[in-house]
Write a structure and sequence with these properties.
Elements (H helix, E strand, L loop, with lengths): L2 E6 L15 H26 L32 H4 L4 E6 L6 H11 L3 E5 L2 H13 L4 E5 L2 E3 L6 E5 L8 E7 L12 H6 L5 H14 L1 E9 L4 H7 L6 E6 L6 E3 L14 E4 L3 H13 L5 E4 L5 H12 L7 E4 L13 E4 L3 E3 L4 E3 L2 H8 L12 E5 L5 H9 L8 E3 L3 H10 L5 H11 L6 E3 L3 H10 L6 H8 L8 H17 L4 H4 E6 L5 H23 L7 H21 L20
Parallel strand pairs: 2-8, 2-9, 3-6, 3-7, 4-6, 7-8, 10-17, 11-13, 11-14, 12-13, 14-17, 18-19
Antiparallel strand pairs: 1-20, 4-5, 15-16
Helix pairs in contact: 13-14, 14-15, 16-18, 18-19
Bound molecules: adenosine-5'-triphosphate and magnesium ion.
The site of magnesium ion has 4 residues, from helix 3.
Catalytic activity: ATP + H2O = ADP + phosphate + H(+)
Cofactor: Mg(2+); Mn(2+)
Pfam families: DEXQc_Suv3, Helicase_C, SUV3_C, Suv3_C_1
Length: 587
């Protein structure tokens, strides 16, 4: 079946002459609104309360010459959130291994509260919680970068952590999977582990939520590795901190033998591998053996497709009873897995092939044997017996203590800095912050490499700083060629005419179900571009008017990808008995 799908046109070179004024009212509506409000209060707050909190660093009136103020001094980030600082929050840390009931217990408190917010690291988790609360007759809005589903009478919100509002007051708030976010440990090796969940980039959103959410009760769920850091960070906020430790609700058994042959695969198995190509090759091997059909889950699949694949795997009434997945299963999906089988304990992390870290192995292995599921006892093993010692030792080891949390200058600081250095573009401002930021020992500056690539692109355009900032913090995958082209075209057209019509960027084309992994990857990238359009359209409504077209095009992408996943038999299978090879492929 053929569908009409828009394709990305060739990007024309930059070279725009007209400087256009941003529509402030719509610009601030979403991402920038909390920071803007904070900016407006910043001077007043620090003038009135800065000294009470012992924050001489931020004792500035906002009236003096900006150049005399050190904007790169980020040593007291708790003072950036005046509304939260007016509260004495009760902070409850729910810590323990995977599948120990941390989120379940925190959500029970949220359900009982008069108003509240759940902040999760992924859209999938925000969707699940909104669904759960609405089902429990607690009306709950869903707000992610790309969605805003408002429910009548709702006093509760389920959001992705970037959307956490630090200007509202709540009775109860949850920040889930906090270890995925607050980072970091000493060794370079451990620093890399964070790429799994994008914490190097996203850590600052969690730090912002941790310091900035103004709730009477704040529940933090995650790994015990975060406890010392969170306790230390919250010493200066005046909050009360309580730690609740959990045990795993169902056993997780590390097996002594590997899975040697495809005939050993059984219902409920999840084979974990780290390249898209290997995922499809393993799927093919298993399906060719004739006993099982496989669902697949990996990071660059659209979230809607990932959910559909997970739902099909969980549904005991159909034949898709085996899962082949990447580490994207580590968080966010409720899966009926009986046994995790690691095809390898190495992964390509974007730069090189490295061993999985203890935290990654535990997080992935812990997905087996979900409490009160079809498979209450989880098992974990490998395809290669050489990997078993590392698997077993990792499962016994504690996760390395997280020593520092990600931080990033707020828009307010960047803007004030820009006023003091009007000739600098956003790229240079970011570079300056990264190189000169003064931090206390609990923090590190989040990795802004990708943001700087995006900043270099938008600096070519006649845009105001807040426009540039908005594009730079957008969820663009700047390292993906098609996504990068789409991003550049959106920014360029916006700077030229203020109105970005989807059809000016994407041309009509008739596409069929992809036949090769390359065609599939292209479709995944087009989905990312459409997702970016939706994100921009929620913040610049008048300038990105085709949200509905983008949403329907996204659905077509999902349908085509799902049809590929069902029909795919063209990729050569990979024999299970193959020797252990170092995988060097990029995902
Ligand atoms: N007291 C309980 N009664 C019924 N079901 C429970 C209870 N506690 C937990 N569960 C269920 O057990 C499963 C695991 O719980 P939960 O998701 O809270 O674990 P978690 O510790 O947050 O795990 P993860 O680290 O993987 O996020 C969920 O399906 C949850 O609904
Ligand atoms: Mg949880």
């Amino acid at each position: 079946m053929a569908y009409s799908l828009l394709r990305i046109r060739k990007v024309s070179p930059f070279g725009i002459s007209r400087v256009l004024q941003a529509d402030k009212a719509s610009l601030w509506r979403f991402h920038l609104e909390p920071e803007c409000a904070q900016f407006l209060r910043f001077g007043v707050f620090t003038r009135n309360y800065g000294k009470i909190l012992g924050s001489s660093n931020y004792d500035f009136t906002g009236s003096g010459p900006t150049s005399s103020f050190d904007f790169t001094d980020l040593t007291c980030p708790h003072t950036w959130y005046p509304i939260a600082r007016r509260k004495k929050r009760k902070v409850i840390l729910h810590v323990g291994p995977t599948n120990s009931g941390k989120t379940y217990n925190a959500l029970k408190q949220l359900e009982r509260s008069s108003s509240g917010v759940y902040c999760g690291p992924l859209r999938l988790l925000a969707w699940e919680v909104a669904k759960r609360l609405n089902k429990a007759n607690v009306p709950c809005d869903l707000i992610t970068g790309q969605e805003k589903d408002l429910v009548e009478g709702a006093n509760h919100k389920s959001v992705t952590v970037e959307m956490a509002d630090v200007t509202s007051v709540y009775d109860c708030a949850i920040i889930d999977e906090i270890q995925a976010s607050l980072a970091f440990t000493l060794a370079e090796e451990e620093i890399r582990q964070l790429t799994m969940v994008g914490c190097k980039q996203r850590g600052f959103s969690f730090t912002r939520a941790l310091l900035g959410i103004a709730a009477n009760e704040l529940h933090l769920c995650g790994d015990p590795a975060v406890v010392p850091l969170v306790e230390d960070i919250l010493k200066v906020t005046g909050d009360d901190v309580e730690v609740l430790t959990y045990e795993r609700l169902s056993p997780l058994v590390p097996l002594k033998v590997p899975v040697r042959s495809v005939s050993d695969i059984k219902t409920g198995d999840c084979l974990v591998t780290f390249s898209r190509k290997d995922i499809y090759r393993h799927k093919n091997t298993i399906e060719k053996a004739g006993k099982h059909l496989c669902s697949v889950v990996y990071g660059s699949l659209p979230p809607e497709t990932r959910t559909a694949q997970a739902t099909r795997f969980n549904d005991a009434t159909n034949d898709f009873d085996v899962l082949v997945a990447s580490d994207a299963i580590g968080m966010g999906l409720n899966l009926n897995i009986s046994r995790i089988i690691f095809s390898t304990l190495e992964k390509f992390d974007g730069t090189e092939t490295r061993d999985l870290t203890v935290s990654e192995i535990k997080q992935i292995a812990g997905r087996a044997g979900r409490f009160r599921s079809q498979f209450p006892v989880g098992e974990v093993t490998c395809l290669h017996k050489e990997d078993l010692p590392l698997l077993h030792s990792s499962l016994k080891s504690p996760s390395p203590i997280i020593e520092r949390a990600g931080l990033f200058p707020t828009y307010d600081l960047l803007s004030r800095y820009s006023q003091a250095h009007p000739k600098l573009g956003l790229y240079k401002i970011l570079e300056h912050f990264v190189e000169n930021a003064k931090l206390s020992s609990n923090y590190f500056i989040s990795n802004v490499e990708d943001m700087m690539k995006a900043a270099a692109l938008v600096d070519e355009l006649p845009l105001k700083l807040q426009d540039k900032y908005l594009f730079v913090v957008s969820p663009v995958d700047i390292n993906d060629e098609i996504s990068g082209r789409g991003f550049a075209q959106f920014a360029q057209n916006y700077s030229k005419t203020r109105v970005v019509k989807l059809r000016e960027i994407l041309s009509d084309d008739t596409v069929k179900v992809p036949r090769t992994p390359t065609e599939l990857k292209e479709l995944e990238s087009i989905h990312k571009v459409l997702d970016l359009y939706v994100w921009l359209s929620l913040r610049l409504e008048d300038s990105f008017p085709d949200r509905e077209v983008a949403a329907s095009q996204k659905s077509i992408c999902n349908v085509l990808i799902e049809q590929f996943l069902e029909a795919n038999r063209l990729i050569s299978p990979i024999p299970f008995s193959s020797k252990k090879l170092r995988s060097r492929r990029k995902f």
